[in-house]
């Protein structure tokens, strides 16, 4: 079975600071993709960043970057220069076959002014 | 802008009264998904369509059904809603059912009285 674990139910950070959200996963598959999705309060879920498992280089998207450790099955998200608009629920997700997206439990991130 | 649209955004129904939720997309994607998300939990996949092929998750209750009359529209029918079916229902699309990003709609919040 494919599982995704986010061990931090809630995190908070001051505006302009850096925060890291943790995610681990379990799979026996070799080919898969990992995603971080952001779900702001009362707004739709949007993709923040994606990582292909066969790529060793960590993905980056502007202020968002990941630390992908394939052997450790770890996929953390770093948000630099946090902004108030980053306040949201963040889901780590894993896709391995036929579009089956498995989500972690989510981490509520609050950015304080 | 290409997007995923869900109507209505809020739906109230009575216990046992059938209800239909609607999703449409302008992305011309082949795959459409329905997820159930209960408060502060991860989205749970109910089923998906690859074109006209319907794929039901093994643990999706029989009370939930879906229709996809054409590429753009997909419906979620709840035949006899129970109190436990109160949740946010998310529609998502992807170009195909491999490793591609899924695009989410804003969701329909269902309340069962």
Percentage of residues assigned to helices of chain A:
under 10%
Task: Find the structural class of chain A using helix and strand composition.
Answer: mainly beta
Class based on secondary structure composition and strand pairing of chain B: mainly beta
Oligomer: heterodimer
- Kindly state the mean pLDDT of chain A as a whole number? 93
pLDDT < 50 runs, ≥5 residues of chain B: none
Distance between the termini of chain B: 36 Å
Strand and helix order of chain A = EEEEEEEEEEEE
What Rg of chain A, in angstroms, do the CA atoms define? 13 Å
Helix content of chain B: under 10%
Strand content of chain B: over 45%
Mean pLDDT of chain B: 93
What best-fitting shape of chain B do the alpha-carbon axes yield?
Answer: globular
Strand segment count of chain A: 12
Radius of gyration of chain B: 13 Å
Estimate the strand proportion of chain A: over 45%
DSSP summary, beta strand count of chain B: 11
Biggest protein-protein contact in the assembly: A-B, 23 and 25 residues
- The H/E string of chain B reads EEEEEEEEEEE
Q: Span between N and C termini of chain A?
A: 41 Å
Q: Could you outline the blueprint of secondary structure elements for this entry?
A:
The complex is a heterodimer of chains A (about 110) and B (about 110).
Chain A: E1 3-5, E2 10-14, E3 19-21, E4 24-26, E5 33-39, E6 46-52, E7 60-61, E8 64-69, E9 74-79, E10 88-95, E11 101-103, E12 107-112
Parallel strand pairs in A: 2-12
Antiparallel strand pairs in A: 1-4, 3-9, 5-6, 5-10, 7-8, 8-9, 10-11, 10-12
Chain B: E1 4-7, E2 10-13, E3 19-25, E4 31-37, E5 44-50, E6 53-56, E7 64-67, E8 73-78, E9 87-94, E10 103-104, E11 108-112
Parallel strand pairs in B: 2-11
Antiparallel strand pairs in B: 1-3, 3-8, 4-5, 4-9, 5-6, 7-8, 9-10, 9-11
